[in-house]
Amino acid sequence: MPDDALLSLQLDHLKELQVRYESALADHGFDSLLVASGAAPYRYGDDQAWHFQGYGPFLHWTGLTGREHCWLWVRTGQKPVLWLHEPVDFWHANQPLPEEPWQAFIEVRSSQSPEAPLLDDPGTLAVIGDPALLGTAAGKQNPEGLLKALDETRVRKTAYEIECLAQANRMALAGHRAARDAFVNGESEFGISLAYQQATRQREADAPYHSIIGQNGHAGTLHYQYYDTQPPGHPRSLLIDAGVRFRGYCSDITRTTAGPGESHFAAVIHGLERLQLRLCDMVAPGVDYIDIHRKAHQGIAALLSATGLVTGLDDQSIVEQGITRAFFPHGIGHFLGVQVHDVAGKPAPAPEDAPFLRLTRQLEPGMVVTIEPGLYFIPSLLESLLAGESGQYLNRELLSRLRGCGGIRIEDNVVVTGTGSRNLTRAP
Ligand code: GLY
Ligand code: MN
Ligand code: MN
C-alpha cells in the first residue's frame, strides 16, 4: 500500500493535470476530451494478443497499466469520469481497483462495453488514442495540435510523478543488486533475468521494456534481446539495462560488471562511471542537453586515451575523426516518465553529430532525464574504423583483448531541480 504522503501528492498531481488540460483544450478550441486506454492487438493470423501496457495520456492521469478498453473523460470545469472495462468473462479476470483517495477526484464507473461511452453534453469533443480502436467514436479524433500540447503537459513532472519515479528506481536497484549477485554466482543471462524479476516482484512483460541482459560479447549489442540459458564458460562481463514500473512510472537503469580477472575492463568501467557521474552533475536548469551529449564524447575521447585504446591523437581529434562515435554510437539519454522514452523530447531535429539523440531541449526544473554514456566494442563499427584513416591510432592488441567483454553502459535517472539536480538512481 503506498503511503499517505504519496496518495496526497497524487491529488495535487490530478489538480495540476486538470489545470494543464483545461488550458490545452481551451487553446485548441475543445470543451472536453475522451482518452482511450487502448488494447493490445492480436498477432497476425493468430488468436493471441500482444501484452498490453497502456497509452501515455491515460497513464498520466490514472497510472493504471494493463487496463484495456477503459475511457477517461476530461471536462472543463467538471470532474473527470473514468469508465473501467469490467466485462463478465470466464476466460479472463478483471483487475480489482484498490480504493484510493484519487477516486474522490475522478468519478469511476464500471462498463461492460469496450466501446466509447455515450457522453452527456460533451460540447466540442476531442477523442485520443490508438486510431485502430477509436472506430466511429464521436468527436475530433487525435487532433495533431492538441496531441502536441498534451505531450507538453508531461514534460515538467509534478512532485507525485517524481516520487513515483524515485520508487521505480528503488525497486529496480534491488533487482540490479540481485542480478549482479547472480552474475557473480555464475548464472546465465536467463538466470540473471529470473533473479531480477524475483527481486523486483515484477514479471518482465510488465516492465517498461524488456530487460537487456548481455554477457561477454552480447554486451556490445545496444538492445541485445535474447537470453542464453547456459552461462558462458568464461564469464567476462555483464551489462544489464532493466527498469521497473511503479504506478505507471518507469525506471531505466544500466549497470556493467567486470568478471573475475578482467582488471583492464574493470578500469574502463571505472573511468566511464566517473565520467557518467560528472555528466549527471551537469544536469541543471538552463543547460542544453545536447551539451551534455557533446561533453560525453569529449570524456570518452579522454578515456580512450587514458586507457591506451587510442594513442597518438589529442582528445579533440579523437572526437572530430568520429572515433568516439564508433565506441559510443547512441545518444546520451532521453526523457523518462510513463513511457521509458517519454514524449516531447525533440521539438528540433537532432544535430548532425548526434543523429540518435532523443532529447534536444534546454533543461527545466521538473524534467526527468536519463544519463547513459556507453563505450562498446561493436564489431561492425570497429571494423570500419580499423580499416580507415583513423585505424592507425587504435591499439589493436588491447582492442582484441577487450572486445570479448562486449561493452559498457552506465545509466541513471536524474531530475532537474530548481537549482541543480537530484539523481534518483544514486539516492542515499
Ligand atoms: N533501456 C533503453 C534505454 O536505455 O533507452
Ligand atoms: Mn536503459
Ligand atoms: Mn535509457
What tags apply to this protein structure?
428 residues, alpha+beta, Creatine Amidinohydrolase, Chain A, domain 1, Creatine Amidinohydrolase, 2 domains, 6-stranded mixed beta sheet, 3-stranded antiparallel beta sheet, 12 helices, binds glycine, binds manganese (II) ion, metal-binding, protease
Indicate the multimeric state. single chain
Largest sheet: 6 strands, mixed
CATH architecture of the largest domain: Alpha-Beta Complex
* CATH H-level superfamily of the largest domain: Creatinase/methionine aminopeptidase superfamily
Helical run tally: 12
Tell me the total number of β-strands.
16
Order of strands across the main sheet: 4-3-2-1-5-6
Averaged pLDDT: 97
- Secondary-structure element sequence? HEHEEEEHEHHHEEEEEHHHHEEHHEEE
Topology of helices and strands:
Layout: H1 4-27, E1 32-36, H2 56-62, E2 71-75, E3 78-85, E4 107-111, E5 125-128, H3 131-134, E6 140-141, H4 144-152, H5 159-184, H6 189-200, E7 212-215, E8 237-242, E9 245-246, E10 249-250, E11 253-258, H7 263-282, H8 289-306, H9 315-320, H10 323-327, E12 368-371, E13 374-376, H11 379-387, H12 396-402, E14 407-409, E15 412-416, E16 421-423
Parallel strand pairs: 1-5, 3-4, 5-6
Antiparallel strand pairs: 1-2, 2-3, 7-8, 8-11, 9-10, 12-15, 13-14, 15-16
One manganese (II) ion binds next to loops.
